[in-house]
């Protein structure tokens, strides 16, 4: 069998990707942590942990708890800050022949724009993914991600600050995901990544206390997949920009379902915690499925759901 | 590395405490004392995450045809869904393993006394350490504590290495009655200021007490921490623990899986609970 018989290439927001499989922000470190387990050059792209201007040390512990079919996290956007990122993380990123997309956020609209401008200046950064949807921090994060006008204004500010492809990562914790998506598209987003985690909580009955120090956290893993599929499907048919599907993708079957629902690419998140090689395995298994189906072009699947 | 491992044996050694022996690739023989593995129990999505376990021992068997096979052992206590499932597996079953992971113990001067302090299942990472220290001709003592004698594991194996074992149980069913730190303090008094390094693994209150003893006596002390983990490779930052400079204004978190699980006790914050 030759892989040449299947086209896995996709073009997303001006980026030519060798396949539609990316790693999701916050689940893949800065890439280097997984280099022992994944051949990064087999992935379409990889997305680094949410970055901001100054180092952030994150939330108190406990920060994670397993739930049926998923996990809650409240890491609190711990990250090294852009200066350390440039000094310590970029050399590795430069050495990998796969587009690196940097997820970023700010605590104010000005910080968002400043981050976009600083990332715009880095040739190693292929595209930017704005996090306007972190459920675990007060400033930044979800405040900007639940109001369409607010989201539109910071996307516009970042749009003005960068010529690189600009993805916006959307929160599912809204009543109208389509309104959010349209606001971001109108403000100049080149692609929409969805979904971020769903806000949830877990309780220790005997202690009569929440398990997470942050009380609430973001639910990820297979438990959220049906919610994510619906939102991707709704948004993909409502906007013109490409949608990147995220939410409980554990294997090639899940990934292909997201493509059918309208995603032009997908991100593997929590699965990388369980199997650090998950993203690469998904690429390989998607190719195998295509060959078995006699399907020659992955792009034929995008939005091909028969409803 | 990630590998599929075959269970060679899985037995309950004491009520609720199990010992499992697993096959490993040859490269696993390089595992160092204090390192751990992440075990995927079952192939389904519940439980979803891997479970971290200390490496108890690593060994190899050379067959008549000259081929060498490597195996390792873990001790575990059945406490929840993952360990319950693990205890139901049998020889011949397979599990997926990620490891060896993390930073293990540092051995220090060979001629000083090495005092190992283990509470309950916390003895698990100390055996490989004891073996290595004995190999280096260091004088090694073990202080093992638990609620009752059922919580004292594998003492005979430590004794077979030539390790002097001191035991303490809260109910008095084995050794001294009370906490293991009493015997540790008595021994340190007898050492009268001679150099020694402490190595500890066990429940938080025990680690805190040992860290305090080490600080009061200005002795080096390494502790092996347990934490809920998702990835085990330093990516998710879910397992962090407060470092010595931690406060609400100067957050200082250390990643247990990647920077640990073994830390110098003086590098950690012991005042507030994590």
UniProtKB/TrEMBL annotation, chain A:
<dbReference type="GO" id="GO:0044205">
    <property type="term" value="P:'de novo' UMP biosynthetic process"/>
</dbReference>
<keyword id="KW-0665">Pyrimidine biosynthesis</keyword>
<dbReference type="InterPro" id="IPR001295">
    <property type="entry name" value="Dihydroorotate_DH_CS"/>
</dbReference>
<dbReference type="Pfam" id="PF01180">
    <property type="entry name" value="DHO_dh"/>
</dbReference>
<feature type="binding site">
    <location>
        <position position="195"/>
    </location>
    <ligand>
        <name>FMN</name>
    </ligand>
</feature>
<feature type="binding site">
    <location>
        <position position="25"/>
    </location>
    <ligand>
        <name>FMN</name>
    </ligand>
</feature>
<dbReference type="InterPro" id="IPR012135">
    <property type="entry name" value="Dihydroorotate_DH_1_2"/>
</dbReference>
<keyword id="KW-0963">Cytoplasm</keyword>
<dbReference type="InterPro" id="IPR050074">
    <property type="entry name" value="DHO_dehydrogenase"/>
</dbReference>
<protein>
    <recommendedName>
        <fullName>Dihydroorotate dehydrogenase</fullName>
        <ecNumber>1.3.-.-</ecNumber>
    </recommendedName>
</protein>
<dbReference type="InterPro" id="IPR033888">
    <property type="entry name" value="DHOD_1B"/>
</dbReference>
<feature type="binding site">
    <location>
        <begin position="196"/>
        <end position="197"/>
    </location>
    <ligand>
        <name>substrate</name>
    </ligand>
</feature>
<keyword id="KW-0285">Flavoprotein</keyword>
<comment type="pathway">
    <text>Pyrimidine metabolism; UMP biosynthesis via de novo pathway.</text>
</comment>
<keyword id="KW-0560">Oxidoreductase</keyword>
<comment type="function">
    <text>Catalyzes the conversion of dihydroorotate to orotate.</text>
</comment>
<dbReference type="GO" id="GO:0006207">
    <property type="term" value="P:'de novo' pyrimidine nucleobase biosynthetic process"/>
</dbReference>
<feature type="binding site">
    <location>
        <position position="221"/>
    </location>
    <ligand>
        <name>FMN</name>
    </ligand>
</feature>
<feature type="domain" description="Dihydroorotate dehydrogenase catalytic">
    <location>
        <begin position="9"/>
        <end position="290"/>
    </location>
</feature>
<feature type="binding site">
    <location>
        <begin position="73"/>
        <end position="77"/>
    </location>
    <ligand>
        <name>substrate</name>
    </ligand>
</feature>
<dbReference type="InterPro" id="IPR049622">
    <property type="entry name" value="Dihydroorotate_DH_I"/>
</dbReference>
<feature type="binding site">
    <location>
        <begin position="269"/>
        <end position="270"/>
    </location>
    <ligand>
        <name>FMN</name>
    </ligand>
</feature>
UniProtKB/TrEMBL annotation, chain B:
<dbReference type="InterPro" id="IPR023455">
    <property type="entry name" value="Dihydroorotate_DHASE_ETsu"/>
</dbReference>
<keyword id="KW-0665">Pyrimidine biosynthesis</keyword>
<feature type="domain" description="FAD-binding FR-type">
    <location>
        <begin position="1"/>
        <end position="107"/>
    </location>
</feature>
<keyword id="KW-0479">Metal-binding</keyword>
<protein>
    <recommendedName>
        <fullName>Dihydroorotate dehydrogenase B (NAD(+)), electron transfer subunit</fullName>
    </recommendedName>
</protein>
<dbReference type="InterPro" id="IPR050353">
    <property type="entry name" value="PyrK_electron_transfer"/>
</dbReference>
<dbReference type="GO" id="GO:0051537">
    <property type="term" value="F:2 iron, 2 sulfur cluster binding"/>
</dbReference>
<keyword id="KW-0001">2Fe-2S</keyword>
<keyword id="KW-0274">FAD</keyword>
<feature type="binding site">
    <location>
        <position position="236"/>
    </location>
    <ligand>
        <name>[2Fe-2S] cluster</name>
    </ligand>
</feature>
<dbReference type="InterPro" id="IPR001433">
    <property type="entry name" value="OxRdtase_FAD/NAD-bd"/>
</dbReference>
<dbReference type="InterPro" id="IPR017927">
    <property type="entry name" value="FAD-bd_FR_type"/>
</dbReference>
<dbReference type="InterPro" id="IPR039261">
    <property type="entry name" value="FNR_nucleotide-bd"/>
</dbReference>
<comment type="subunit">
    <text>Heterotetramer of 2 PyrK and 2 PyrD type B subunits.</text>
</comment>
<feature type="binding site">
    <location>
        <position position="231"/>
    </location>
    <ligand>
        <name>[2Fe-2S] cluster</name>
    </ligand>
</feature>
<dbReference type="GO" id="GO:0044205">
    <property type="term" value="P:'de novo' UMP biosynthetic process"/>
</dbReference>
<dbReference type="InterPro" id="IPR017938">
    <property type="entry name" value="Riboflavin_synthase-like_b-brl"/>
</dbReference>
<keyword id="KW-0408">Iron</keyword>
<keyword id="KW-0813">Transport</keyword>
<dbReference type="InterPro" id="IPR037117">
    <property type="entry name" value="Dihydroorotate_DH_ele_sf"/>
</dbReference>
<keyword id="KW-0285">Flavoprotein</keyword>
<dbReference type="GO" id="GO:0046872">
    <property type="term" value="F:metal ion binding"/>
</dbReference>
């Amino acid at each position: 069998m030759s892989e040449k018989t299947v086209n896995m290439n996709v073009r997303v927001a001006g980026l030519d990707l060798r396949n539609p499989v990316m790693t999701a922000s916050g689940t893949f470190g800065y890439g280097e942590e997984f280099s022992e387990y994944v051949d990064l050059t087999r992935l379409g792209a990889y997305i680094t942990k949410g970055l901001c201007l100054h180092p952030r040390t994150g939330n108190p512990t406990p920060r994670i708890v397993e739930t049926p079919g998923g996990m809650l996290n409240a890491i609190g956007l711990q990250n090294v800050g852009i200066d350390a990122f440039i000094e310590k993380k970029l050399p590795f990123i430069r050495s990998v022949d796969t587009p690196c997309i940097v997820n970023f956020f700010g605590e104010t609209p000005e910080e968002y724009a400043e981050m976009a401008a600083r990332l715009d200046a880095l040739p190693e950064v292929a595209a930017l993914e704005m996090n306007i949807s972190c459920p675990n921090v007060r400033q930044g994060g979800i405040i900007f991600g639940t109001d369409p006008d607010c989201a539109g204004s910071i996307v516009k500010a970042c749009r003005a600050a960068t010529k690189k492809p600009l993805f916006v990562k959307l929160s599912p914790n809204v009543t109208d995901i389509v309104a959010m998506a349209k606001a971001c598209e109108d403000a100049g987003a080149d692609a929409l990544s969805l979904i971020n985690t769903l806000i949830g909580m877990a309780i220790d009955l005997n202690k009569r206390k929440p398990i997470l120090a942050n009380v609430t956290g973001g639910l990820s893993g297979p438990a959220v997949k049906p919610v994510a599929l619906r939102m991707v499907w709704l948004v993909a048919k409502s906007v013109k920009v490409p949608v990147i599907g995220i939410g409980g993708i554990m294997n090639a079957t899940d990934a292909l379902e997201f493509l059918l629902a309208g995603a032009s690419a997908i991100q593997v998140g929590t699965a990388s915690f369980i199997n650090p090689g998950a993203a690469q395995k998904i690429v390989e298994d998607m190719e195998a499925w295509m060959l078995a189906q006699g399907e020659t072009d992955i792009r034929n699947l995008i939005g091909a759901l028969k409803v | 590395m990630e590998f599929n491992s075959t269970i060679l044996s899985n037995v309950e050694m004491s009520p609720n405490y199990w010992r499992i022996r697993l096959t490993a690739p040859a490269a696993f023989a390089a595992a160092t004392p204090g390192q751990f593995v992440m075990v995927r129990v079952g192939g389904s999505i519940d439980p979803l995450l891997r479970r971290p376990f200390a490496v108890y021992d690593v060994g190899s068997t050379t067959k008549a045809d000259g081929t060498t096979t490597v195996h390792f052992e873990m001790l575990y206590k059945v406490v929840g869904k993952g360990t319950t499932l693990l205890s139901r597996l049998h020889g011949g079953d397979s599990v997926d393993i990620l490891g060896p992971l993390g930073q293990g113990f540092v051995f220090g001067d060979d001629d000083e006394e090495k005092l190992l302090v283990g509470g309950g299942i916390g003895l698990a990472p100390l055996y490989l350490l004891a073996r290595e220290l004995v190999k280096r001709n260091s004088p090694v003592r073990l202080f093992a504590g638990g609620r009752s004698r059922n919580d004292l594991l594998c003492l005979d194996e430590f004794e077979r290495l030539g390790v002097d074992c001191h035991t303490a149980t809260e109910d008095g069913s084995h050794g001294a009655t009370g906490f293991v730190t009493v015997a540790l303090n008595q021994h340190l008094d007898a050492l009268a200021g001679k150099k020694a390094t402490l190595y500890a693994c066990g429940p938080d209150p025990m680690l805190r007490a040992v860290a305090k003893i080490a600080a009061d006596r200005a002795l080096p002390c390494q502790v092996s921490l347990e934490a809920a983990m998702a990835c085990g490779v330093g990516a998710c930052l879910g397992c962090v623990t407060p470092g010595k400079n931690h406060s609400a204004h100067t957050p200082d978190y250390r990643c247990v899986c990647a920077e640990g699980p073994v830390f110098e006790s003086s590098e950690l914050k012991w005042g507030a609970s994590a």
